[in-house]
Amino acid sequence: MSSLIFGARLKFMSKILNKTIRLGFLMLVLMSTNVIAQSASELLAEAQEQAALAIEQETKPYNYGQPLWKKAIELAEEAQEKKPNDKDIAAFLAFSYSDVMWWSRAYENWQHYFSLGGSLAEAKKENINAEKLFIRALGEMGYARYQAEDLDAAIPFYENVLEILPQNTEAIRWLGRIYLDKSEPQKALVYWEALLGLEPNDSGAQYFYNLSKRHLEIGIAASEAFEAGINAYESGDFPKALDGFKLAIAANPSYITAYAWAARTSTDMGQPSLALDYWNRVLELNPDYEGAKYFADRAKTQARWGTVATNEYYQGQEFYEQGNLLAALPHFEQAYSYNGNFKDAAVWTARVYGELGQLDKAEFYWKKVLLIDPNDKRARDFIRETQIESSYGIDAGDAFVKGVGAFERSQFDEAEKLFIIATTKNPNFAEAWGYLGRLYFTLANYPKAANAYGRALVLEPKSEGYRYFATESLRLANPGQ
Fold first, then answer.
1. What is this structure's pTM?
2. What is the predicted pLDDT for the residue at 15?
3. Helices 203-218 + 185-198 axis angle, to 10
4. Taking the CB of residue 193, how many other CB atoms lie within 10 A of it?
């Protein structure tokens, strides 16, 4: 064979061999890729088996140091190295790290899972507890930052929860708290409003909502001082509470609620004069502030007559307003016994006795009133009425007193009826006849005036007034005679 032919054949065989080698290499590459994909799936399947055994056999709380959990996670990590962008592997690792409470790794895998397009709905098909595990992982990461006082670092974890679960109440609650701690009440208020929208009866949310509003309305320093005062008050430490309210007032001199609480605390401390100062300040800021006038009057009364006497007096007032006179009476009497110069206590004791029909005791206390204030018209009128009723009878005396009142109000028809009742019940009631004559004289009914004054004069012949008006009435009734 010639060298030329041999060379041609050798060249031809070389080409065939090169093609065969290249084809074989390509097939090897393709086969290798399939092996890798299959290997990652097998590793994941084995990891899932190990995790199922771990759930059955390992004791809670689970941790990475437990052999079955460690094996399951190592297999899944190996699978992820072979197939980094596999959602199922990322989800399994997110579940498993959450189960063993390795929160940072759990968080990383949750983030990776969602970056690959995963959703909680898909994850829950694989693990019914997926949502709880997700929330727990991010919550723990956020709480760790919160505990470390790195509030800015804590916020994104709870925000990430809301990106996936916009109505998650715990994430909303934590963001509200964190923004309050950051002294950003405007942002905090947004979250507390959102939480109340989801849970209207949540007392904690309502408290922090109010706190956020107060921070905005009166300032953080005043609000925090006021809160400290309230806490001290509720624990019974009144001096500390008063200090808190004073600090709130100093931080915001227009903070009316702090003045009101300072007044209330001063009262509880037995310092009515100080309480009165605070109540007066409340009334200066808002004359219509609910209860301020009442409590200011009470503090003023306490400062004048003593706390014990005043408290008894106001307790009597409460029972009286309820219509319970028998319950009110001993409190009024006790108030007067604590301070014999407490005129209003004596007045109300006399008044209640009168309304109960115990006129002798009523008169006794009205006389006490006159000892305190000789010019008290109520006391003088009652004693006079009592004396009249004693002299002329209760029915005649009552009609007469009411008739005088009607006459003084120019209610002449009513006065006439009452005076006639008085004179009918007791024809010897000279003063009633005299007033009836006065009424008719005022109305220019001189014949009747002459008759009434004449009856009064017969009963009291020494009265120059009755004599004069009887004569004058007759003259006017018969002009020209």
1. 0.55
2. 53
3. 150
4. 15
